[in-house]
Amino acid sequence: MPELPEVETLRRSIEPALVGRTIRAVEIRRRDMVSGPGDPVGGFSRAAGAPTPVRLAPTWLLEGLTIRGTARRGKQLAIEAEQSTAGRTTGDPSGDAPAVVIQLGMTGSVSALDRNADLPAHTHVLWRLDNGRQIAFSDPRRFGLVRALPNGTRDAWADLGPDALTIRGKALADRLVGTRRAIKAALLDQQVLAGVGNIYADESLFAARLHPEDPAGDIPPDRVALLATSVRRILRQAIERGGSTIRDYRDGSGNAGAYQRSHRVYGRTGLPCRSCGTPLAGLRVAQRATVFCERCQPRNG
Ligand SMILES: [Zn+2]
Fold first, then answer.
1. Residue 256, pLDDT score
2. CA 189 to CA 205: how far, in whole Å?
3. Which of 38, 44, 90, 207 is at a distance of 20 to 30 A from 199, taking alpha carbons?
4. Ligand 1 centroid distance, CA of 75 (Å)
């Protein structure tokens, strides 16, 4: 499942194809992969009953609008249009500009394609640009979603915690005060910290030498600061390597990531710890497979 480094790599790979281009047409090939204003916020697959989809206005998916750029918060990727106010275009990145947010879910991806390129299998939404190029959102397993946000990302992203790529120790400590749950569960909670998933939680906890089940609120401030530093460093390194490709992640040009070769714990249960040689242990935290070193990451260590 794509986490912050993969989404950021994808964002950087598609942005040059989009900036300054006008969306000539939007083709929605699967309506239930799009959520507009008035539709279930989490998408139709996770909504109770069978909600009737609203009628989507083409501009909600940016048809006819010119793209100002892309943005990212945690694992969410936004394509933002220029906002015209009283006939003027403003470049202010306020979160108010019309946007679509693409949530990749398990297997979602976004591809920047030439005019006559074949579409990826399971393409659900296609944006045709004024220069003939195309941006395709595809998702075989369909846990992803395209959210149409004509009023911008501000409200949609209000529930997300601070972005993990820039998290500082004090800000992280403030969000862990008083919580008894396991530190790994807290790291995975997008309202605490936006962008970390299973891979980078395990890698960051190993780097900070914290046991994944330690109660988050009991960790001393200097150790939380080390954790925040580890999160930032590992995410930055992963972005430099184009993210991690475990099964099918690709950036917008079809390139796989390479950071999976640098994983120190994720996916390595039973293999020797790269620091001390002890076989790595596995357990489940917050319903997620978790790998750690019992020697390097002792409980309440
Ligand atoms: Zn070890």
1. 95
2. 15
3. 44
4. 29
Residue 232 known to be catalytic: no
Confidence class for position 47, pLDDT limits 50, 70, 90: confident
Reply yes or no on whether 162 is catalytic.
Answer: no
* pTM (two decimals): 0.94
Q: How far apart are CA 204 and CA 228, in angstroms?
A: 8
* 75 catalytic residue (yes or no): yes
Q: Which of 11, 68, 75, 175 is catalytic?
A: 75
Q: Which residues of 98-120 are buried (b: 16+ CB within 10 A; e: fewer)?
A: bbbbbbbbebbbbbbbeeeeeeb
Give the per-residue pLDDT at 84.
63
Q: Using CA atoms, how far apart are residues 106 and 118, in angstroms rounded to an integer? A: 23
3-class secondary structure, 200: helix
Burial of 96 (0-12, 13-18, 19+ CB in 10 A): middle
275 CA to centre of ligand 1 in angstroms: 5
Q: Ligand 1 center to residue 278 CA distance, Å?
A: 6
Centre of ligand 1 from the C-alpha of residue 272, in Å = 8
